[in-house]
Specification:
190 residues, alpha/beta, 8 helices
């Protein structure tokens, strides 16, 4: 029997938050680093019209997701958690990317119980549907909304684009080892 149900965002959480940067730099002749990405909306950073960036994203997203590097320590932590807990990956990716996503998980040898590509950043209903006990996210407003609406802890993976203040139930972590330490402490009081 699996112990807890973890809801886990994929992009910027399981994958490196800098995944998009080399593609943006090459396509738009930029020299961005992760520290330059100080907000989730890339339009003001890339300085192109919203539709142009949206078109670029649709054209390149499958390749980007297929080649996305893992966040440091994510694999070891997720493999260990998967032995005792249910891992439900909930992503804003649209469902046409399901095959690419499953192939990526297979290539990186990360097991999952469910992958739900909801095509939206609003993950509250998915978190409720799967009866998630704790959520892992990199998008600030998602973390805050999920925490408050579902009354569950959310671990927010720190990035330059999510450094606004957080409510009590949102815990900022800086890497997967720290997330694992928090989970181990949390499990002792459940």
């Amino acid at each position: 029997m699996l112990n807890k149900r973890f809801g886990i965002d994929i992009d910027g959480t399981v994958t490196s938050p800098s995944t998009f940067i080399p593609y943006l730099n090459k396509s738009f002749n930029l020299s961005l680093t992760l520290e330059d990405i100080t907000e989730y909306d890339l339009v003001p950073i890339v300085k192109v019209p919203e539709q142009e960036l949206a078109d670029w994203f649709l054209k390149n997203e499958a390749e980007i997701y297929e080649n996305a590097p893992l966040a440091e320590q994510a694999k070891d932590v997720l493999v260990n958690w998967g032995k005792e807990h249910e891992l439900v990956f909930i992503s804003a990716r649209h469902d046409a990317l399901l095959d690419v996503t499953k192939k990526w998980f297979s290539n990186h040898e990360i097991a999952y119980n469910h992958i739900d590509l909801i095509g939206s950043h609003n993950k509250i209903e998915a978190a409720k549907t799967y009866d998630i006990d704790v959520f892992f996210e990199d998008k600030h407003d998602n973390a805050c909304d999920i925490s408050e609406e579902c009354n569950i802890p959310v671990l927010l993976f720190d990035t330059p684009y999510n450094r606004l203040p957080t409510p009590k139930n949102v815990v900022r972590v800086y890497n997967w080892a720290e997330a694992n330490d928090w989970i181990q402490s949390w499990l002792k009081i459940q």
